[in-house]
Amino acid sequence: MNKQELIAQVADISGLAKGDAVKAVESVFDVITAALKKGDEVRLVGFGTFSVSKRKASTGRNPRTGEEMTIKASNQPKFKPGKVLKDSVN
Q1: What sign results for the dihedral spanned by CA atoms 61, 78, 1, 17?
Q2: 14 with 28: CB under 8 angstroms?
Q3: 90 partner at 20 to 30 Å CA-CA among 48, 50, 61, 67?
Q4: Rounded to whole angstroms, how far apart are CA atoms 26 and 30?
Q5: Around Cβ 57, how many Cβ atoms within 10 Å?
Q6: Which secondary-structure segment (H or E) carries 72?
Q7: Are 51 and 60 in contact, with CB atoms under 8 Å apart?
Q8: Residues 8, 14, 17, CA angle at the centre, nearest 5°?
Q9: CA 35 to chain CA mean position, Å
């Protein structure tokens, strides 16, 4: 399912107009993104938890040349599914 299909499903299930469903879905994404940028965690009980994990700088190799290169430290978004979500797909 892609973003447009998600919006269509939200509109159908909720009874919202498609334009309102677009605003709702975009707003949810924006709120989650803003919270993660601040370093906060977004915990949706039964669904899962969005968080940020910090990756340390490391040394890697260029696959073409074999030359060593430094991979800089970064923040990575992470999602851990909740028990209800895990149970519903099994």
Answers
A1: negative
A2: no
A3: 50
A4: 6
A5: 9
A6: none
A7: no
A8: 60
A9: 11
* Alpha carbon separation from 26 to 6, 18, 64, 74, 87 (Å, rounded): 11, 12, 40, 25, 27
Q: At what angle do helices 3-14 and 18-37 cross, to 10 degrees?
A: 120
Q: Which residues pair with 76 in a beta bridge?
A: 53
DSSP 47: T
Q: Summarize pLDDT for 14-54 with one digit per residue, the tens.
A: 999 999 999 999 999 999 999 999 999 999 999 999 999 99
Helix (H, G, I), strand (E, B) or coil at 65: coil
For the whole model, what pTM was predicted? 0.79
Query: Taking the C-alpha atoms of 42, 48, 52 and 54 in order, what is their torsion angle to the nearest 10 degrees?
Result: 150
Helix, strand or coil, per DSSP, at residue 52: strand
Report the amino acid identity of residue 28. V
Total residues found in the chain within this entry:
90
